[in-house]
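Q: Got a minute? One more chain.
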Amino acid sequence: MLSGCLLLAAGLPAAEALESLRLQAVMTPREAIRYDFPAPPQHFVLLVRRTGTVEGSGIWQGAQAVEYGMHDIRPGDEGVARGYLVLTLASGDQAFIQWQVQATFVPGPEGKPKLLDNGVWRFVGGTGSLSGIKGAGILHIKPVSKTDRRFLFEGHYVLP
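A: Always. Here it is, folded:
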């Protein structure tokens, strides 16, 4: 009964099956526009399109991902990033994720700043078999190279 009440409170009918979601993708830049502000402290804004292949389970395994993001960063201090991730299944059906993260730098090994990049995501639509998808969760972004980032989405979703 309680889970049905929570689903109804979230705007989800209790009759629909709530699915767990855990997917990740290493995203590689394909296009970028960057502006470095010419005054201290160091500060830049990056508009980027990245692509990757999803590692997940069920319908998500092997989906193609495209990020359209805007990252406003003060290296060594903080930043805010937001954007959309378009997931395309082998069938051609798509799901659209809106996401936002807060970048926080904390002291790391040897005095170098360590980046904590954590936030939230939600489905904002879909096509075909993903039409009407609803869900939300947490997002972690971690560097895997100088340019590539691992996006890790965890949460829950429901399909009508």
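A: The helical segments are 2-9.
Q: Perfect, thanks.
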